[in-house]
Amino acid sequence: MNRILYLPLLLFTFACSKNELKEPLVYEGPLSEAENVELFYSESEKVKVKMIAALVYEYENGDREFPKGIYLEFYNEFENLESTLRANEAYFFKKDNTWRGRGNVEVKNVEKKEQLNTEELFWNPKEEKIYTEKFLTIKQVDQIVSGEGLDAKQDLSHYKITNPSGRFDMKE
């Protein structure tokens, strides 16, 4: 009779002591981290873009994250400063070669003295284009233009606001 009681207890103990096979954990965090980064991108030995970031994470797929913000300066073919871009945080998507800035994004065209402000902005360096679907304002010398959605050259020399709003002065 004692054997009958021990058999279920023995089976229960054996079943609980088996090691369960678990899937290995995959690390998806950054592979490298850099602080106080200052980089220069150049073409034909001329500086095109200067980048400053307090913190950069680089991931296995080549993406980069800038959790403490980013500051970029864009230079023309004569290496004169054309425009600047600042954002509270940024992310570089290597697969698409596209950047995303978020949080108090500010783009300034130095020559035209114009300033773009929005909460999210994308930059495609190959096409030298910036764009957003978010609300934005552009402060010009004599007026402020606002709306939702933007497609522009990275230096703000030409741009189109998808859904403009506000009051505009028309020149004839």
Please write out the topology:
Layout (H helix, E strand, L loop, with lengths): L1 H16 L14 E12 L2 E13 L5 E3 L3 E6 L5 E7 L1 E5 L4 E12 L4 E11 L4 E11 L4 E10 L5 E7 L7
Antiparallel strand pairs: 1-2, 2-3, 2-4, 3-6, 4-5, 5-7, 6-7, 7-8, 8-9, 9-10, 10-11
Give a verbal description of the structure.
The chain is mainly β and 172 residues long. It has one domain (31-165): Lipopolysaccharide (LPS) transport protein A like domain (lipopolysaccharide transport protein A fold), CATH 2.60.450.10. It contains 1 helix and 11 strands. It has one helix at residues 2-17; strands at 32-43, 46-58, 64-66, 70-75, 81-87, 89-93, 98-109, 114-124, 129-139, 144-153, 159-165. The protein has a 6-stranded antiparallel barrel with strand order 2-3-6-7-5-4. β4 and β5 form a beta hairpin. It starts with a helix and ends in a 7-residue tail after the last strand. The mean pLDDT is 87.
CATH class category label: Mainly Beta
Domain tally: 1
The N- and C-terminal alpha carbons lie at a distance of 107 Å
Strand order of the largest sheet: 2-3-6-7-5-4
Structural class: mainly beta
Instruction: Profile the largest sheet.
Output: 6 strands, antiparallel, barrel
CATH architecture: Sandwich
CATH superfamily: Lipopolysaccharide (LPS) transport protein A like domain
Q: Kindly provide the radius of gyration, computed on alpha-carbon positions and rounded to a whole number of angstroms.
A: 27 Å
Provide the helix percentage. under 10%
Detail the poorly predicted runs. none
